[in-house]
Amino acid sequence: MDLRRSKRIPKPKTIWEAKGAPSAASDPKVTKNTARTEQRTALKPIATGPLPKALEIDENQLPELPDYEPPLFLQFQRSKSLATGLSQLDTFQRLLTPAIIDRIVESTNSYAKKARNTDFDEEEDLEFLSRPWKPVHSTDTWRYIGCLLYMGYHRLSKHEEHWSESGYLGAFLSLKRYEQIHRYFTLRERTTAP
Questions:
Q1: How big is the CA angle at 99 (ends 98 and 100), to the nearest 5 degrees?
Q2: What would you report as the CA-atom Rg of the chain, rounded to the nearest whole angstrom?
Q3: Of 137, 148, 139, 149, whose CA–CA distance to 182 is shortest?
């Protein structure tokens, strides 16, 4: 059995410049809203006259400007690093000064006090409230930040694994204390900067 395909006769291609704008009379598919699709003509250059000659300015007619010296003279020199000769801990403590740590301690304690005074209905929140809250001190904050940095560098699937038997962080901060601090840790005082 011989299957033959019918050969289609292609329509002659028209160049877009030669094709006029469709009208409702010539094309039944065109509706009355053809004003949006009308073909626009290209911009034509506008003939202009000769360009005017450049203005000639006599330098003798200009007023003299006073000599100007900037009030500040900048001299660039290589500066010494402020961290030269410091240990890694001292360098890090230059970024987080004791004043910043004290602010974090005040903000965290204030937020914990305010959050624990609200009414809770869920059993999970009651479990957290059953743990007594001890106010955070600067040593707790340093240990918490150290735990965050360590966990960021040594990634495990769950953060609790850092406190397992093979974990390293249990010697510095207990898991329950870490979770308490993590729950209420904040960098701003919510009463003065809401």
A1: 90
A2: 39
A3: 148
CA atoms of 129 and 134, how far apart (whole Å):
12
Question: DSSP for the chain?
Answer: ----PPPPPPPPP--TTTSPPP-TTT-TT--S-GGGGPPPPPP-PPP--PPPPPPP--GGGSPPPPP---S------PPPPTTTT--HHHHHHHHS-HHHHHHHHHHHHHHHHHHHTS---SHHHHHHHHSPP----HHHHHHHHHHHHHHHHS--SSGGGGGSTT-SGGGTS-HHHHHHHHHH--SS-TTT--
pLDDT averaged per 10 residues in sequence order, the chain, 194 residues: 69 59 58 55 69 68 78 77 81 88 92 77 57 89 92 88 83 90 86 66
The pTM assigned to this predicted structure is 0.52
CB 141 within 8 Å of CB 105? yes
| Six-digit token string for 1 | 């059995």
